[in-house]
Amino acid sequence: MWQRARDSEPWVPGARLLVHVDDGGTEALAQLSWTTEDGTQCSLGFSPDLAGCYGQRRTADGDMVEVRGELDEQRGEQDREGAQGYEFDTQVRDADGWIPAGRLRVLVEDGSRAPVQWVAWHDRSGNACSLTLRPAGPTGNADVSDLVVAVSASAEHHGAGEVAANLVDTSSSKWFAPHSHASLDFRLSQPVPVKRYVLTSANDAPDRDPAAWTLRGSADGRLWRTLDARTGQSLPGRHRSRTYRIARPGAYNRYRLDITGSNGSPHLQLEAVRFLAGSGGFVGYRQRAGHSPVACRGTRVMRIPPEIPSQPLPDDATTPSAWQPGCSWLPLGGALSMESSTSPSGRFTVLSGVYDPPLAIRDNLTRAYVWVGDARSFSLLSLGPDGDLAAWDHHGRRVWGTGTAWRGVRRLEMRDTGDLVLTDAHGGIVWSTGIPEVPAASGELPTVARGSRMRRGESLYGQTLTSADGSTVLFHDGRVLRCIVKGHTSHWDRFYDQHNVLELGEDGVLRALALDGSELERIAGPGTELVVARGAAELRDETGGVVWASANGPARLDGTPVREPAVPRNDVLAAWFGALIGQGRGFCVAVVEESSPTQVLERLGVVPCSVVRGTWRQLQQRREAVGAGSVVAVVAAGPDVIVLSDDATLPVARSVLAESVAVVHAPAGGNGYGARFTLHQRGELVSEFTDQPFRRKGVKVPEVAAALAENDRDRHRFELLFRVCGVVPDAAGLGGVLLGGVPVPSAEPVVAPDTGDALPPLVIAERDTLSPLVIRTDFSDEDAWNQVVTRLGEPWMDNIPEPHLVCEPAYDGVPAERVLKAVRAALPEPDLPGAVFIADATTMRHKAHPPLAVSTEWDGEPFEPDEEAFVTQFRIRPDAAIEVSCNLGIGTMDFEDFAGSDVGERMVG
After folding, report:
1. What's this model's pTM, rounded to 2 decimal places?
2. Residue-level pLDDT at 557
3. Which residues does residue 305 pair with via DSSP β-bridges, in sequence order?
4. What are the residue ranges of helices labelled H in 240-363?
5. pLDDT tier at 531, thresholds 50, 70, 90
6. Which of 49, 350, 564, 814 lies deepest, with the highest CB count within 10 Å?
7. How would you class 782 by CB atoms within 10 Å of its CB: exposed for 0-12, middle for 13-18, buried for 19 or more?
């Protein structure tokens, strides 16, 4: 179609017009007129051969334009097959009443978002018809919100009366949820084909308005069909509404609105949700050539769009052991980090990368994106044991999620429809991106390489290959090509100026090709297959010999075989536990050998009568019911027990008497960094590894030494924990029924180890995290103390935090070991600073007044003879305390960096 203002030049392109009328006759259309709900009117006349048309169009604003069109025979049939249209069972009225008149099919799509309200036509033989569409509601109204008989929400504010029921009443009361993800379920009294839906903003806080959501419909409450998916949305103002169109409605009596993001707030709110029906039928007249017009009416024939087949999953189809890299699904506990998943036919691929967009689905036939996620700047996409698909940044913060925790999710699937879905054990859809409107395209679908191998004739464009042990990834996002060893970095990078395809040709040569097929780079060859192994990508010949490797030389970075059981990477395990505990929380994970769950809980202080079974969320609710405290949960893993707590300082090893106890204490706000690993055997600490500062103790323990040799990085505490114990947590088990409770709190006074004399606990008020914590232990010279305080505040920097001073006379003369233990008792993780500065007798008497800097990573106990050298304390000039405190606080340096090197004249040996 083209259009122009009347009597003006030139013609300009307009929206495509798609028309289909089937009233049982065989004659071609001669004239067609229609009106849409926004007031737009159009009237066209067609040439005898239907090759062209001409007419006028009056817009909703009253402007009149000329329109003309030319038949597009090539695309017409394809467009019609994918269009919605209306189909009616019709009746006409004669002297005896209403009699059947057959099926009538009408389709008019003119590019407008407004539905057709009235349409009329006549054909070449003089037959005519005029009809006015009526809404599907039983009262004849388009708004069918009054058919909602029940509404529920995954979260609401009962105390303020801001509940889900307010969404469908006539008041201005709102629904409020204390989360940025929530689900709203609406049940109607009868199936209704909702054509549009309306969201109305609430009274305050625009950042609480929904920004991303998916609307689904269901006929039985079990199988859900995605109807509409939106991202990047905003409402126009307070108490204002916006209407959204459903492209392919169906007759459903259940509708679910899954809100997956707000406009910045951690909370959500809405004032109202309304549903508007599509056409339920029509009234009008028909007139046969040479006859008088007769009344005509029609009832719409509704067809529920075909559901994606729902089949129960095989028993092994949700377990990590059954999953292979590059396949079309991901199990609970699985993760993608610069990796991809491709649908069974190879048509669609979802890629989790670091370049823009970091999460997207690509059509491998057209090479165009069909869906782009809201997540930005993340390093890991994981399906947690609770069933929530979440993105995490490199600091361990959750930056995006589907909000599907505890809703029965079993796996993530990339389907041949282009839809990325989360499904339950029966194959039912819990969440989806929505089936994209993919335009028809021709051409040959390339053979996508999968898993860890690329064979002759296969290629990569926006896909990845991953080694069998998960340690190494060959990443391609359509332009950038990298070979990445997780825990290290990329060692082979190609940054081309244009989009390209990595292909292993039929001749065995590995090439980078431009999209037009021209060669950009001949990398290596000939070979039989490209294999991503541990540490490198290798081109191999038919005998298995290495022809070329991305790493230096043909050898891999680490030829040591991976021991069983296979252990997920540190960041994946951290994401599992972070999904359970919550964003930014600290936690403790332990493996207790040769014990039972009930024994472990009892020894940790959980009263047997208060032990409950349930999900982690139910255990948290139990904690809220009994008051403050930490949650402890256990799950059996063969003869051993996995312990999980939201208390990062839980003394598992000290409380549980067992043959061997391995523990990782993870502070709040980190994704493994800053964690501490300890191994206790027969009640003795035999190994300890800390990150801040880096400390290694007990590397001569055989199982620890073996685990370190197999790690990509020895600071991966979770890998170390489970390699040492040989016990890997099961995501389904962690997300399923747990045994747990709330320990009974017990206060322990600080006791001097040498005399047994009790000291009063240190009271340390709230302090700036970068402020030096100074403890005074000498009270003999007040003038000297005042000079210390003055010099502490005289560094060379501006705008620094004031030193935090603690003066407790009872600590006069107390040695540094006892002071450190008192500080650790007063400030548990994550409030514990990296160092404490003690103003002792030496500080007061020395002319430079140097305080003693003591590492808080040291527990105050003597070191074992075989332990590696580790400096726990050194003297420092007062004006340098802020430098040490700030660098430890922001994590740019470790205590060992200051203690083990010459820092300059500010330090005193």
Report:
1. 0.57
2. 35
3. none
4. none
5. very high
6. 350
7. exposed
